[in-house]
Amino acid sequence: MRLIFYLGTDQPKTIFPFTLLILMVSGIFLWSACRTSSVSKDKVTLQLKWHHQAQFAGFYTARENGYYKNEHLDVNFIEGGNDVEIAEALATQKAHFAVLSPETVLRKRSKGVPVKAIAAVYRKSAVVFVAKNGSGIIRPHDFTGKTIAAASKGGGASEFELQLKTMTKALGLEWSGMNVVPYDPSYSGFLKGSVDVTAAYYTGGVIKLRKKGQAVNLIWPADYGVHFYSDILATSDEIANTHPQLVERFLRASLKGWKQAIGDPEQTVDTILVYARVKDARLQSAMLEAMLPLVHTGQGNIGSMDSSVWKGMYSAMYEQGMLDNSFDVRQAYSPAFLKKVYPNTTP
Amino acid sequence: MKLRNKLILIFVFLSTVPMVTVFGLVYVKAKNTIENRAFHHLEAVNLYKSSEIDRWLTDAENSLKALGQRPLVVEYTKALARHHQPAFSDMDSKVKLVKNHFQIRVDLGRFREIFVLCPLHGEILASTDHRQEGKFRNTRPYFLNGRENTYIQELFYSVSLEQPTMVVSTPVKDGKGNLAAVLAGRLDLSELSEIISQGWRLQATEDTYLVNTFNFFITEPRFGDDYALKKTVHTKGVNACLSGKDGKAFYNDYRNVPVLGVYHWLEKYQAAILTETDRQDAYEPIGRMARWTVFFLITAVLITSGLGVLFATSISRPIRQLVVGTREVSRGNLAHRLEHLSQDEIGDLSRAFDSMTETIQKTTVSRDEYRQLNKELEHRVAERTEELKNQAAFQTSIMQHSPIGIVVYHENGQCIQANTTAAGMIGAGIEEVLNQNFRTIPSWKHSGLLVCAEKCLSSGEKQRTSVSVMSSFGRQVVLDCLFATFTIQHEKHLLLLFNDITELTQKEKDLKHKTMQLKAANKELESFSYSVSHDLRAPLRAVNGYTRMLEEDYEQILDAEGRRILGVIRSEAVRLGNLIDDLLTYSRLGRSRMEYSRIDMETLAQSIFHELASPDDKERIQFHVKEIPQATADPTLIRQVWSNLIDNAIKYSANKNPAMIEVDGETAEYEYIYSITDNGAGFDMQYVDKLFGIFQRLHSDKEFKGSGVGLANVQRVILRHGGRIWARGEPGKGAVIFFSLPSVHKSDVVKTETDKENTDER
Q1: pLDDT value at residue B749
Q2: Chain A: residue whose CA lies nearest to B87
Q3: Residue A89 lies in a domain
Q4: Phi/psi at A161 (5° precision)
Q5: Is the pTM of this model over 0.90?
Q6: CB distance from B85 to chain A under 8 Å?
Q7: How far apart are the CA of B257 and the nearest CA of chain A, in angstroms?
Q8: pLDDT digits (tens, 9 = 90+) for B283-329
């Protein structure tokens, strides 16, 4: 069909098909733009475990690099803190997703809080036991008769103690032989010498101690059969059940973010600094460096969960009486979403 | 567009396009070659390093395997495993194991640490690094796989060791094939790094590194700063390789720098080995070459442009000059010449042009000249025509006005021209005359004119005759007819001139008559003179005689007066006698017969002077005779002439001292002219007529003696000869007497001479 348009001259001009084409093309662009921007962008809240820091690098990367946007998610971060109850945030649906320790997941789960882990961001625990270099304490067997700062201040169970106990048990060491004292984040006792071994996070305290110039021996629980995860990405049962695709999308974007974060530490530091409270590039960079191998272990995909690890954690906690009730540990985590994200691999 | 620019463009284009094409092709070829070479090199390096790694790792495997198969090792590990105690408790065998076998091996290199794992729990039972003892490695693939076969675990970061680790493991089996333990060795990765980093490098940016399946650098890349196991790389090369492919490509590397990359997938180790070099580096030779070539290209283009300009100019300039030349020529400036433009065809053209211009110029000049000449010619023709017209008119006038009748006949007899006089003379009209043919005129026949005419025509000589004809008036006329013939345009013509000499004839007749009368009278006179003089002589003689007698006889008687009177009588008598003598001579002169002969006038004059002049005279007088012609005349008479003339000269120059007498003469056309010049008394020209008169004297007898007959005699003689005589003088200064004698003598002339009376030239 051709509309002949007379422009006042004798020459007839055929503009209809051409302009139609332009209109169509621009229409498509506008439409797709609208789609991306307006239609079904889900608002999602992620509750972080602690203050903004390098620890949550992957999430920041996912947001900054537009991975969440690509999954049509509008993600909002909530910092954690001393007074923040992370699991509660999930339970109360204050947050859709949360980053929390596996211990918390299991504890809350045992209490009936419907927390469900969907990925293990830190597949290696950052918990490490530190002894002064030259102290001669190089393995857990050397802990006997030593003062170990691992207990929680409040008197409750700490994951340090949890892992120490698990390790002691795994090795068949005498628990009573160890003088377990509360964990001091300042490490003053340790530095002074009144504490022989202190628990610490590899991503935190160890950096601090080393920065102070203290050469240390690191005793990893993982070396002695104690395999714990660290940061877990979890959601509520309800969300997992009612919005599985949302969970999948969020997980995919988040894990992509983590992969990217690990792959380009330099860039990641910059991304972290966008959010981090402590705008110290060196500090954040050191933290990032330390945590990378805990996220990317060299085996398996980032975030992948091993049921044996969950079992082990559950067993340890249960044996140490840290869980109120027993339950099917498989309820605490769901590998389903990981399967969707990593379709070709066995999680 | 101007030819010059066109030529330049064509030239540059023709020279540049091939050059650029060649350059382009060469560049592409060279680039390909260099690329291929670079890739080949990279491939070689990559292959070499891959094989080195393989060799190294295989060596490690084999080495460990061999170690694990040593009987002692088997024995000791078995012992260790059996205990299942914290490994460090069983010192003995452990020490032995470690010290004797493992440590040695570690010392040899390749392995950083060699350790033994419990086959069940993966606990490190013994290790060359005692700190590792007691650790559990049961999750490690090298443990899990090492229980079955010799296994290399891909490089990973060990958090426990806080460093990248690569472990080789091998099962230690006893004789029965039961697994006793797992022997593991941690590789010395510095050796690996060395393999990777060492080697020949062609380029400065060449680098080889390994990447694992998680895209992490396994080995430190050259330009990386602590990348190994810390940073991932997702370049095209890496991704391609990690998908299991081998190949080569261009891509941007981890620095986002364009590189040539060769990648090889090490299946066994689940790693990608990449060898890269900066594209810039690899292409540096090309770059250099390209730069040089571009430089040469530009230079060549500039040169060719320059040459092109020269070439084009060398063509366009002469052409432009040709244009200018043609313009000049067309403007009319034919003198314009193109300078020598060039040696080539255009030069030929320019020379041809010049010669053409020259020719045109010449032609134009000659045309102009021709025109000019033509004009002149026309002018001259016009002039000449005018002249001729005038002449013709003049001639016609002459002819018509001529008192002589002029008639022109063609030899065929037809009258062509006649003048009115002619017509009048014969009493006919001019038309009548013009119609005549002389051959048909009867009177011509009668009168003998025809004969004369024919004679003239045939002989070509002038003919003259006189005819007596009857005019139409009835009058008898005598016509003096003169015929002449002339040829015009190869045609003979007859010219007839006739004059009415009727009167003249009559006059002639009368004259003849008169002359005869005169002659008779003259003769009578001469006779009379002779007889008188002769008769007179007798009484004179008597007087003279008696006077003398008286003088002689009666001298004493006589007184003075008487003597004087006697003297007077005597002198007078003498004088009378002289006069009579002279008269006699004079008359005689008229009667004597003349006889001609050749006379040497010069000698004659000289001798006469010598005769006549006295010694005193000779002293006083300078007498010169110049070279004078001989004459043909009567010697005696001429002698008389010279005597009289010289005598006169002497006489009349008596008062002068020195006196000069000069005799000169010359040959004229028909006569010899002689002169005698003296510087004597001279005479007044007023009385020149009287000079030659008989008895005419211009000086008194007292002044100069003489009878007055001398010059008369001379005149007589000269006249008798048919010559002329005249004189010039100035009183006191001198006189010149000229006389001439005819040189041409015909017998006719001689005969008719006596009838002639030539008048003197006055």
Answers
A1: 44
A2: A141
A3: yes
A4: -65, -40
A5: no
A6: no
A7: 17
A8: 777 778 778 878 888 888 788 788 878 877 777 777 788 888 888 88
Same domain, A326 and A248: yes
Stretch (H or E) spanning B405: strand B405-410
d(CA B712, CA A64): 176
**Which residues are CB-contacts of A151 (< 8 A; sequence separation ≥ 6)?**
A158, A160, A161, A180, A181, A182, A183
Say yes or no to pLDDT of B53 above 90. no
CA-nearest of B248, B198, B190, B240 to B219 is B190
Check B160 against A292: CB less than 8 A apart: no
**Nearest beta carbon to residue B160 from set A140, A223, A298:** A223
Residue A288 structure tokens: 């990032």
Q: Which domain holds residue A7?
A: 3-34
Q: Which residues of A touch B131 (CB under 8 A)?
A: 138-139
Task: Test A296 with B86 for CB contact under 8 angstroms.
Answer: no
Residue A347 within any structural domain of the chain: no
Give the DSSP per-residue string, B669-681.
SSEEEEEEEE-SS
Q: Does A138 sit within 8 Å of B135, measured CB to CB?
A: no
* Structure tokens given for A5: 């348009």
**Can you read off the two tokens belonging to residue A261?**
């974060």
Here the tokens at position B535 are 């008769």
> By C-alpha distance, which of A74, A37, A104, A20 is closest to A333?
A104
Q: Are residues A97 and A240 in the same domain?
A: yes
Cα torsion B186, B187, B190, B194 to 10°: value is -170
| Strands in B489-525 per DSSP E | 491-500
Residue A124 near chain B (CB below 8 Å)? yes
Taking contacts as CB-CB distances below 8 angstroms, the residues of chain B near A222 are 159-160
Q: Say yes or no for a CB contact (<8 Å) between B134 and A297.
A: no
Chain A, nearest residue to B135 by Cα: A223
Report the distance separating Cα B416 and Cα B690, nearest Å: 55
My answer on whether A196 and A250 are in the same domain is: no
CATH code assigned at A242: 3.40.190.10
One domain, residues A194 and A269: no
Any domain includes A140:
yes
Q: Which helix or strand (DSSP H or E) is residue B457 part of? A: helix B449-459
Do A266 and A197 sit in the same domain of this protein?
Answer: no
Q: How far is CA B141 from CA A221, B122, B144, B154, B184, in A?
A: 19, 11, 5, 9, 11
Q: Give the mean pLDDT of chain B.
A: 82
**pLDDT at A30 (0 to 100):** 64
Report yes or no on A277 lying in a domain.
yes
How far apart CA B754 and CA B117 sit, in angstroms, is 200
Show which of A224, A245, A274 is a domain's final residue: A224
Same-domain pairing of A279 and A137: no
Per-residue pLDDT averaged across B24-48, rounded?
Answer: 85
- The token duo for B143 is 């443990």
Q: In this model, does residue B87 exceed pLDDT 60? A: no
Instruction: Tell me how close the Cα of B54 comes to any Cα of chain A, in angstroms.
Output: 21
Q: Is residue A300 less than 8 Å (CB to CB) from chain B?
A: no
Q: How many CB atoms lie within 10 A of CB B397?
A: 13
Question: How many domains, chain A?
Answer: 3
Cβ of residue A314 closer than 8 Å to a chain B Cβ: no
Of B702, B697, B654, B700, the closest CA to residue B679 belongs to B654
ipTM > 0.85?
A: no
Contact B131 A296 (CB under 8 A): no
Same domain, A46 and A100: yes
Closest to A219 in 3D by CA, of A130, A307, A344, A302: A130
CB B145 within 8 A of CB B107: no
Omega of the bond leading into A12 within 30 degrees of 0 (cis) = no
Say yes or no: A90 and A12 in one domain: no
The answer to whether B253 and B276 are in contact (CB under 8 A) is yes
Half-sphere exposure of B381 (CA within 13 A, CB side): 6
Model confidence pLDDT, tens digit, residues B592-626 = 777 888 899 999 999 999 988 888 888 888 899 99
